[in-house]
Design a protein that fits this description.
- The chain is globular and about 60 Å long.
- The longest helix has 23 residues, at about 200-220.
- The protein starts with a strand and ends with a strand.
- Helix 3 (about 55-70) runs parallel beside helix 4 (about 90-100).
- The protein has a 9-stranded mixed β-sheet with strand order 5-4-6-7-1-8-13-12-11, sandwiched between helices.
- It has a single domain (about 5-390), classed as 3-Layer(aba) Sandwich (Peroxisomal Thiolase, Chain A, domain 1), CATH 3.40.47.10.
- It has about 400 residues and is an alpha+beta fold.
- It has helices at about 20-30, 35, 55-70, 90-100, 115-130, 200-220, 240-250, 260-265, 270-275, 285-295, 330-340, 345-355; strands at about 5-15, 15-20, 45, 75-80, 105-110, 135-145, 155-165, 170-180, 185-190, 195-200, 230-235, 305-310, 315-320, 345, 365, 375-380, 385-390.
Length: about 400
């Protein structure tokens, strides 16, 4: 007898600092509407020097662990394309911070922005094999491009933690899916570069091609169509991309989509991304958390469609059923408080943080304290990152 598996808890975290894109537009000498309407972004989150993918990921997970405990967590999957070590998984640092059981598989996964979905699906498979265990998925990233480059206004950062269990109380992941892999160079970041390289127009075309192929396979495997899905979530490099993707999906499905329908079906998933920016592997799930937090309609029993895309490229379309009582499991108030209490940066502060080099000489370096979550990167000594809990 098969058992339902999926997301039992979901928590989002982002930096306490941001820059308003109107500020950036003024410095770059462009119309703010290029950012706010053209790509659909208002602000972008900026991680301070003592915040990284590990502290963000652990901060996202801590609320879940504090509420639901750490017992029976036998798998920690840490998804990122902003890796901090060529050997040690960032998840092992997070495992220690969170005090998880020693009896736990912990690995890091990478495939651009698809990594979070790979982690979620692998976690579901592990729990389906042994329904007595729980798995923790952490997707965390910092999106970084060169100053004054076309990608600059799509920067951002964030993390999402998801507890995966049998009989989940938020979203039961359905087994049907559509997959697509193609060896392309639309976005990449060599080991010797801090900033990503991207062919924006080409990447948009590949994103939409992957969506079409994944949707076709999902429909063939599930027998479902556009009308069987109540709300839609997409990978969010910027919010306008999700709208373009949904317009394409509707057109391919023979739907004459109105602006009102677009806003109803996709809009509730976009608000968090619009004020935090791209978080790569976490971005689809930032959208999911936003949808669950902000949709006024009770979604219990409704199907949500999810499209995950990672440049290079891998795509997947899948779906899940929202569970009765899901609102009791959300962290809506924490998310709102976090976003409402952030500190705005001036352009000079943003640029100073951007240009601050990370020490690579193996010496002892102590980092100044900024506003972070419950964990921070305190410094580096002998090439070792030193983390601490914030009192």
């Amino acid at each position: 007898m098969s058992v339902n598996v999926g997301i039992d808890a979901i928590r989002f975290y982002t930096s306490n600092y941001f820059i308003d894109l109107r500020t950036l537009a003024a410095v770059r000498g462009v119309d703010p509407d290029k950012y706010m309407l053209g790509i659909g972004q208002d602000k972008m989150a900026i991680p301070p020097p003592d915040e990284d993918i590990v502290t963000m990921g652990a901060s996202a997970a801590k609320s879940i662990i504090d509420r639901d405990g750490k017992d029976r967590i036998e798998l920690l999957l840490f998804a990122t394309e902003s890796g901090i070590d060529q050997s040690k998984a960032g998840g092992v640092f997070a495992h220690g911070m969170l005090g998880l059981p020693a009896r736990c598989r912990t690995v890091e996964l990478k495939e651009a922005c698809y990594g979070g979905t790979a982690a979620l699906q692998l976690a579901c498979a592990a729990v389906a094999r042994n329904p007595s265990i729980r798995a923790l998925v952490i997707a965390t990233d910092v999106a970084r491009y060169e100053l004054a480059s076309p990608g600059e206004p799509t920067q951002g950062c964030g993390a999402v933690a998801m507890l995966v269990t049998a009989n989940p109380r938020v979203l039961a992941i359905e087994p049907e899916h559509g997959l697509f892999t193609s060896d392309v160079m639309d976005f990449w970041r060599p080991n010797y570069r801090d900033q990503a390289l991207v062919d924006g127009k080409y990447s948009t075309r590949v994103y939409l091609q992957a969506l079409q192929e994944c949707w076709k396979q999902y429909r063939e495997q599930s027998g479902r169509g556009y009308g069987d899905i109540h709300r839609f979530c997409y990978h969010l490099p910027f919010t306008r991309m999700a709208e373009k993707a949904h317009e394409r999906l509707a057109k391919d499905s023979g739907i004459d989509l109105t602006d009102e329908q677009l806003d109803q079906q996709v809009g509730p998933s976009l608000a968090y991304n619009r004020i935090t920016g791209n978080s790569y592997a976490a971005s689809l799930y930032v959208g999911l958390a936003c949808l669950l937090d902000t949709e006024s309609e009770d979604l219990a029993g409704k199907r949500i469609g999810l499209f995950s895309y990672g440049s290079g490229c891998v795509g997947e379309y899948f779906s899940g059923l929202v569970q009765p009582g899901y609102r009791e499991r959300l962290f809506t108030h924490e998310h709102r408080a976090m976003l409402e209490n952030r500190t705005e940066l001036s352009y000079r502060q943003y640029e100073d943080i951007y240009n601050l080099p990370f020490p690579t000489d193996g010496g002892t370096h102590t980092f100044s304290r900024y506003r972070t979550g419950p964990y921070r990167l305190a410094g580096v000594k002998e090439h070792k990152r030193l983390y601490e809990t914030v009192s």
